[in-house]
Amino acid sequence: MKSLTDTVTFRHGARVNTRLVQSPMLSNSGNREMVSQDTLDYYGARSQSAGMVIVEYTNVSVNGGPSRTWADDRSQLAIYDDKFIPGMIKVAAALKKNGNKAILQLAHAGREANYAQAMGRVAEVPTAMDFPWIDYPLHELTDGEVRQVIKDFGSATKRAIDCGFDGVEIHGANHYLIQQFFSIFSNKRNDDWGGSLEKRMRFPLEIVKEVMRVVKEFAPKDFIVGYRISPEEIHSIVGYSWHESTQLIQAITGNYDLDYIHISLPQYNDKPKDSTKTFAELFQPAIGRQAKEIIVGNVLSEKDMQSAMQLSDLVAMARATLLDPQIALKIKEGRGNEIVDHISPEQVKKSHLTPGLINLFSDPRMEPHLPGRESIYALHETGSLNEDILKNGTSSSYNLKDLQDKK
Ligand SMILES: Cc1cc2nc3c(=O)[nH]c(=O)nc-3n(C[C@H](O)[C@H](O)[C@H](O)COP(=O)(O)O)c2cc1C
């Protein structure tokens, strides 16, 4: 019988004392990509939100961000330079102070680096093509530049190790660069990085290889490495289906000893159109027995946690940890009935939401939203949601349905 408070041991020895994970979430608190006091207050308050907290998407290359889908400016964090190390050391320490594991999510936004131009940079893509919602220049990566991005993931991993993180998660989901290479919708290359499924898998696989190389050389033995994937990308042409993404996962877990695979889902028990099984179940054979599976999506109550746990080894929560930063502690102590399940002006303060997150979630147009959001509409100042994207249809995967409907 599974319990939410089971100890889970990863294949390289790291242990967590609950099946609950905090899903990566932009804290909207960076100051020119650097960790700010707001970032530290927010993560410091989340040292008991889960056994393992995955810190938000952090940019590994100069041109890999910032992405401002949900932020006005440079509030996304980065790790492409040693100058980011002192701040990130504090984030890792703040999360680990009560025995939590701290994982850093490594990302390159690719075409979604929609604030890059404003910072004198250029958004990089597998193939420069016309995306209806994009009104800034896109630079098609050369073979040499592709190889440099792969190295950037390795350098970022080394910095994460030096900062004291317990692991890294490679962000292969949510329409960012890795997914853009894997998807036939956005990858029209005919060199070694595009074309057949095998060639479209090469960029993700080379990144995993480079990250693992750095981990084997520099990290403690029990360092955790995970990979996040969106199970499908469906437009009028199919970017990829679960039939292909399970092959990618099989290739990753068959060749590299990753600790976990994280399936990015809007609803934890979602199923594809052509199967009666959930994505969580369909990915299990590809993940195998050695790596753990994490699922996520609309887990907001103890009941949701219990039923999601039946489908997977670990259950991640994003918004629930904004509402109640002590959610896992309460489960551990048998106080599930005390979990805060809606936002209020009072809870905004108690849960140490950053000003950027308050502004985002008090915007009536924000999706996915926090239950009880009407009570904080008065806190909304201006901006937050990217007006251009709202006008043209968002490119964020959490609103993938919008994107699908548009094409
Ligand atoms: C404000 C916000 C920021 C997010 N930022 C990230 C991110 O940095 N990286 C990522 O992989 N997913 C990100 N997500 C997606 C979440 O990790 C999660 O998959 C999604 O919110 C569904 O989980 P939930 O229903 O528990 O909120 C973000 C979601 C929200 C609401």
What's the helix and strand layout?
Layout lengths: L7 E2 L5 E2 L3 E3 L14 H8 L7 E8 L17 E2 L6 H12 L4 E7 L15 E3 L12 E3 L2 H21 L3 E6 L4 H6 L14 H4 L1 H17 L5 E6 L3 E2 L3 E3 L1 H14 L4 E4 L15 H9 L4 E5 L5 H8 L4 E4 L1 H5 L3 H6 L12 H6 L4 H7 L25 H6 L7 H7 L1
Parallel strand pairs: 3-4, 3-15, 4-5, 4-6, 6-9, 7-8, 9-10, 10-13, 13-14, 14-15
Antiparallel strand pairs: 1-2, 11-12
Bound molecules: flavin mononucleotide (FMN).
The site of flavin mononucleotide (FMN) has 23 residues, from β4 and α10.
Please give a structural write-up:
The chain is of the alpha/beta class. It has one domain: Alpha-Beta Barrel (TIM Barrel). Helix content is about 35%, strand content about 15%. It has 15 helices and 15 strands. An 8-stranded parallel beta barrel has the order 3-4-6-9-10-13-14-15, surrounded by 5 helices. Strands 1-2 form a two-stranded antiparallel sheet. Strands 7-8 form a two-stranded parallel ribbon. β11 and β12 form a beta hairpin. The longest helix has 21 residues. The chain is globular, with a radius of gyration of 19 Å. About 50% of the residues are buried. The C terminus is likely disordered. It binds flavin mononucleotide (FMN). Flavin mononucleotide binds next to β4 and α10.
Order of helices and strands: EEEHEEHEEEHEHHHEEEHEHEHEHHHHHH
Structural class: alpha/beta
Based on DSSP secondary structure assignment, what is the total number of beta strands? Answer: 15
The kinds of small molecule bound in this structure are: flavin mononucleotide
Strand coverage percent:
5-15%
Number of domains: 1
In this structure, how is the largest beta sheet organized? 8 strands, parallel, barrel
By DSSP (H or I, 4+ residues per run), the number of helices equals 15
Strand order in the largest sheet: 3-4-6-9-10-13-14-15
- Rg for CA atoms: 19 Å
Poorly predicted runs are 393-407
Overall morphology:
globular
Report helical residue fraction.
25-40%
CATH class type: Alpha Beta
